[in-house]
Design goal:
The complex is a heterodimer of chains A (101) and B (672). Helices cover 76% and strands 0% of the residues of chain A. Chain A is mainly alpha-helical and 101 residues long. Chain B is mainly alpha-helical and 672 residues long. Chain B folds into 2 domains: 563 residues, no CATH class; 75 residues. Chain B is built from 28 helices and 3 strands. In chain B, strands 1-2-3 form a 3-stranded antiparallel β-sheet. In chain B, strand 2 and strand 3 form a beta hairpin. In chain B, helix 13 runs antiparallel to helix 17 and helix 16 packs antiparallel against helix 21. Chains A and B meet through helix 1 of A and helix 28 of B.
């Protein structure tokens, strides 16, 4: 099996994620887009692991780490979004500009 | 290091004098002690039981006993010595201080010691409860001390220092009640009049010092009696200049104006000033420099004589019209000083000093008596006195003794001294001056009798009930009246001439006439004029002692006015000296001040301010500040532009990040 389709799929997924992050106004959707990017990275790890026939399964272990971190990250991210929504009554990411000058 | 100078006297061959031994060596004590006491009184006087008076009293009593011991030793053995302490040099001139112990200064020590002691005792009571009691005694002690500096000085410089110190102390004492304007201006007048005369003295001293190359008096006297050429050329000038100095202190016409005004001071001050300390300084100076006058400046002596005679007559006449008891005595002092100066001028050295000696005692007595009266009736005006002989018997009897002594009746002190002056004038052939002096004796007797009659006889014209003064005041009066009686016996022609021997220590330098016996013409005329004066005054004022009635009888309007206005001298001084100075000179000085000095100062000020402005705008503001401001504003403007990047929008940041990653990736791909 060739690795190319897998890399293409991962790149597509990555681009969709980037697009989502840059374009979507809803913070939840931005978080979702981040998940897409992380998953595209996972696909790359697994694909290269299979292609290189690594006996230690480094790529797979790494993708498991990433899934774990993604879960934690989404937990924190959703909590922040939730608190922002409570205080501001909006999830629009453009209005979250408190950190400007 | 003390140098003795015994030689100058001995070289002239005077074996009858000794160097005075320890007593002479420690004479500096009586000069230094008053200054020490004055300092102590100033700092600790207020805490002492008698408020410092005891220190002053102790000092003058010590001076009295020391000078009495000196006088005794001088009268028995004879002392002629002087001591120098070299403290440095000015150019080729040695700066020396020291003390003279010869007949003249011993006589002065004794006069100062005696009169000061009695006046101080008197003053402790007289000044009781007055303001600045302690300060009064400080100044009084300083006054006596300054006079001792003057009379003890072996150099002209020390003499000048003492001279000026006396002036300063007199200023302090005359202006003791300075809260009243008249008193402070009287003090000012005394000081300024003296200062004018002091300029003469100072220039005289400079002239003499330059021509003799020394400041030592004995050296100057030696040169002036040994025909040194340098001093001979300036002798007349120097003599006149020194006499101008003496005119100020010894109140000679026309510089006598300060002395009657000096009555503004408390009476003990007047007594001290008129008897022992201030006014005798001029006569002392003439006496001290007498060999110089006689040796070289005999023309200057003619001027001395002229002014002395004018003073003795002029001041005597003014004394007749005075209503103020103290002013009568003040003009009397001026007149008697005129006698002394006349004597000096006529070459009668001993007679002049002898009159100084006797006058010191009876004038102190009269002033203290007048003070006692004034203390009792609280006024100076004789028109508000009268009939005090019953209330104040002791003051009265002592005052009478003083009056008789001053009027010159035998056997009291004034008779002998005045007689000797008259005899000398007669002998020297100054006929006109002799007649004027006899006239002066007549006037003296007249105004003193007038004062006595107005004060002590008739009915009391004042308010309240005067009573006799305290013992502390009357005892000095009694002692002084004793002196007023016996002081003249020190020099009776033909009987005992001790005084002549006392004061003519520098005998070889002084050539003068000593009457071997009484000059009958002089004695007769002096005595007659005295008696006539007393008689006339008695006839005019009667026992009633009423001033207005009495004055009416002798009032010759124009003369009386002239006398009452004191020859318009004050008017003249104000009109022609003080006002022109005040108006013209002061204006000139003012315009000089505002046009030249102020302009200069202002110019300097504005230039400095302009220069400062330039430095401020260019260097400070334009340079340093601009750099600092630019750096801060630059940071500010850059910051305010740069901050705009920080929008706070997460997606924007991400966009930049992405672009950055793409750019870096492309660089890696294409370039590397």
């Amino acid at each position: 099996m060739s690795i190319q389709p897998l890399l293409i799929a991962a790149a597509a997924l990555f681009s969709i994620g980037i697009y989502g992050i840059l374009v979507r106004r809803n913070a939840v959707m931005v978080l979702l887009s981040i998940e897409l990017i992380l998953n595209s990275v996972n696909i790359n790890f697994v694909a290269f692991n299979a292609m290189l026939s690594d006996v230690f399964l480094n790529g797979q272990i790494f993708s498991i780490f990433i899934i774990t971190i993604a879960a934690a990250e989404v937990g924190i991210g959703l909590a922040i979004v939730l608190m922002l929504f409570r205080n501001r009554e909006t999830a629009n990411i453009n209005e979250f500009d408190l950190m400007k000058w | 290091m003390v140098n003795q100078n015994f030689i100058n006297f001995l070289a002239e061959g005077q074996p009858e004098y000794t160097d005075g031994g320890v007593l002479a060596e420690f004479t500096w004590l009586i000069v230094v002690l008053p200054f020490l006491a004055a300092i102590l009184i100033t700092f600790f006087g207020k805490y002492l039981p008698l408020q410092g008076a005891e220190l002053a009293l102790g000092t003058v009593l010590f001076i009295f006993s020391y000078s009495a011991a000196l006088l005794y030793q001088h009268a028995t053995k004879g002392i002629a010595n002087e001591f120098f302490i070299n403290v440095g040099s000015i150019g080729s001139y040695d700066l020396e201080f020291g003390w003279v112990v010869d007949g003249l200064s011993i006589m002065m020590y004794f006069v100062v010691g005696t009169v000061s002691s009695l006046v101080f005792i008197y003053a402790t009571n007289y000044m009781q409860g007055e303001i600045r009691y302690t300060f009064f005694f400080t100044s009084l002690t300083l006054f006596a001390g300054s006079m001792l500096v003057l009379v003890s000085s072996p150099t002209l410089l020390q003499l000048l220092i003492g001279w000026e110190l006396v002036g300063v102390c007199s200023y302090l004492l005359i202006g003791h009640y300075w809260e009243k304007k008249e008193n402070s201006s009287a003090a000012m007048k005394a000081f300024i009049t003296n200062k004018i005369a002091d300029v003469g003295l100072m220039i005289g001293i400079i002239v003499l010092a330059l021509s003799t190359k020394t400041l030592r008096i004995s050296e100057i006297l030696y040169q002036s009696t040994h025909d040194y050429a340098d001093i001979k050329t300036v002798a007349y000038l120097g003599g006149v200049l020194l006499f101008i100095g003496a005119m100020g202190k010894s109140a000679q016409f026309p510089l006598h104006v300060w002395l009657p005004d000096a009555m503004a001071g408390p009476t003990p001050v007047s007594a001290l000033m008129h008897a022992a300390t201030m006014v005798t300084a001029g006569v002392y100076l003439l006496g001290r420099m007498f060999p110089f006058y006689q040796g070289m400046a005999s023309q200057a002596l003619d001027i001395v004589l002229l002014f002395g005679v004018i003073t003795l007559l002029g001041a005597g006449l003014v004394a007749v019209v005075q209503d103020d008891l103290k002013k009568v005595l003040a003009y009397s002092t001026v007149s008697q000083l005129g006698y002394m100066v006349t004597a000096m001028g006529s070459g009668a050295y001993t007679a002049g000093l002898f009159h100084l000696w006797t006058h010191a005692f009876f004038k102190a007595l009269l002033f203290l008596g007048a003070g006692s009266v004034i203390h009792a009736v609280h006024t100076n005006n004789m028109s508000e006195m009268g009939g005090l002989r019953k209330e104040m018997p002791r003051t009265f009897s002592t005052f009478i003794i003083g009056t008789v002594a001053l009027a010159g009746l035998p056997p009291l002190a004034g008779f002998f001294s005045k007689d000797e002056i008259l005899a000398s004038l007669n002998h020297e052939g100054h006929n006109l001056y002799f007649i004027i002096s006899v006239l002066g004796a007549f006037i003296t007797a007249f105004y003193m009798t007038r004062a006595v009659l107005l004060t002590f006889f008739g009915d009391y014209r004042g308010d309240g009930h005067p009573h006799e003064s305290d013992k502390m005041m009357t005892i000095p009066l009694i002692i002084l009246s004793g002196f007023a009686i016996v002081a003249g016996w020190a020099n009776i022609p033909g009987v005992y001439t001790g005084f002549t021997k006392w004061v003519t220590t520098r005998k070889n330098y002084i050539v003068e006439y000593h009457p071997e016996s009484f000059d009958l013409v002089a004695m007769f005329s002096g005595l007659t004029s005295g008696l006539l004066g007393i008689g006339l005054a008695y006839y005019v004022y009667q026992m009633s002692g009423n001033a207005t009635d009495g004055d009416e009888k002798i009032k010759i309007k124009p003369i009386w006015n002239l006398l009452e206005n004191k020859y318009y001298l004050d008017f003249f001084y104000f009109k022609f000296i003080i006002d022109p100075v005040k108006i013209t000179f002061a204006k000139f000085v003012d315009s000089f001040n505002s046009n030249v000095l102020d302009r200069f100062v202002n110019g300097v000020g504005t230039t400095a301010s302009k220069a400062g402005g330039i430095v401020y705008t260019n260097l400070d503001q334009g340079g340093i500040d601009k750099v600092l401001n630019l750096s801060s504003t630059g940071t500010d403007t850059i910051g305010s532009k740069v901050k705009l990047i920080q929008t706070g929008k997460t997606q924007q940041y991400l966009m930049y990040f992405l672009i950055g990653v793409i750019v870096i990736s492309l660089i890696i791909l294409l370039v590397l």
